Amino acid sequence: MGCVQSQEYLSAKLALALRAPGLTGDAIDEALARGDILRTHILRPTWHFVTPDDIRWLLALTGPRIDALAQPQYRQFGLDDKTRSRMHDVIVDSLSEGAHLTRAEIGEHLTREGIEAVGQKLGHIAYSAEVAGLVCSGPLAGKQHTYALLADRAPDLTDFDRSRSTVAPTGPMSNR
Questions:
Q1: Per-residue pLDDT tens for 22-57?
Q2: What are phi and psi for residue 155, nearest 5 degrees?
Q3: Domain annotation for the chain: domains and CATH numbers
Q4: CA distance 67 to 129
Q5: Which of 42, 59, 60, 81, CA to CA, is 20 to 30 A from 151?
């Protein structure tokens, strides 16, 4: 499997455990903490589990499309390209040196830099940083999900060339 939808974390853990005999929820939490499994927005605007080996090439294929789907929400919250770029810089700085922060903690860093980041706006800011390939899941902090730098959690596949991909869209959504 390339990815497993993980919007509802507990259900997603069950989906993985059912596919791998002997795998437990605790083992999945531990794999997420180590970075053996990552959780990010990758195939569409919802979270998925994915491996570090697959995350970058999948983002290269799907990121531009799922980012395009978010443009109406970005406009709604005043998140143009320049604004998102500035926010991405703050997020990357806040996660440097191996830091793992919850969404609320990232919002606090943005607020200190004079950027209003609460509620759904903060969610779209974090989503944008995921789709841009800057951040992904970190370990759980209690029951809260954290973010980490993708560069710290997954190898950089610099040789991926989207134009040479053999993956082609098929089915009813392929003409959109």
A1: 888 899 899 889 999 999 998 878 888 899 999 999
A2: -65, 150
A3: 4-160 (1.10.10.10)
A4: 10
A5: 81
pLDDT exceeds 60 at position 100? yes
Beta carbons within 8 Å of 119's beta carbon, 6+ residues apart: none
Full-model pTM? 0.83
pLDDT at 76: 96
CA distance 131 to 48: 12
Exposure b/e, 103-141, CB count within 10 A at least 16 = b:
eebbbebbeeeebebeeebbebbbbbbbbbbbbbbbebe
Q: Which amino acid is at 109?
A: H
Render the burial of 34-53: b for 16+ CB within 10 Å, e for the rest.
Answer: ebebbbbbbbeeebbbbbbe
Q: Extract the tokens encoding 31.
A: 């794999």
